[in-house]
Amino acid sequence: MGQTEPAFGVSQGFFYNHLVGARLDYLFTERVSLGPYIGYANLKGPDGGRTNNVLVYLQFEYAHPLSDSGDLSLLFHFGSGYLPKNGPFERVAVGFGYSVSKDLRISLDLFAPAFWVVRDATSISLDMALEVAYRL
To answer: How far apart, in whole angstroms, are the C-alpha atoms of residue 101 and residue 75?
Structure first.
C-alpha cells in the first residue's frame, strides 16, 4: 500500500504537514486488517520553516461493503504511533475504498483528524489521504 496525505492544522495556529508512506497489512478477514505504516513526514518547523521526520504507526482497518459485489466499501481506520523528536501520533479516519480488481484497491480518506504531540502540546490537523493498495 502506498499513501499520500496532506494535513491542515486547525489548532495551535494554522500549519501544513504532508505525509508519504507505505503500509503492509495482514488481512484477518476480507473486512479486517492490521498493519505497520512507515512514512516520510514533511512538517512545519519550529521557526516557521520546514523540517523532515519519519512517522511510524500501527493502523487498524475495518471495511464495510456498500455494494452487493463488494467493490465499494466504507472504510474506518485507527492509527497510533510515534514521531521521533516530537511524540505520540494518533489518527482516526473515515473514507471510501473501490476495488478496481481482486488485487487492486484505491481508497480515499475524506475525514481524518490527526493528533500530534509537539513540545508537550497536542496539535490537531484535518487530513485527507489517497491510497493505492495491492494484495499479494
So the answer is: 17
Angle at 20 between CA 129 and CA 55, to 5 degrees: 105
Q: Which three cell numbers stand for residue 135?
A: 494484495
Between CA 10 and CA 31 the distance in angstroms is: 32
Instruction: Answer whether 43's CB lies under 8 Å from 66's CB.
Output: no
CB neighbour list of residue 123: distance below 8 Å, 6 or more residues apart: 9, 11, 12, 15, 115, 116, 117
Cα 35 to Cα 27: distance, rounded to the nearest angstrom: 9
Segment 49-82, tens digit of pLDDT: 899 999 999 999 999 999 888 899 999 999 999 9
CA separation for the pair 6, 12 (Å, rounded): 17
pTM of the predicted protein model = 0.90
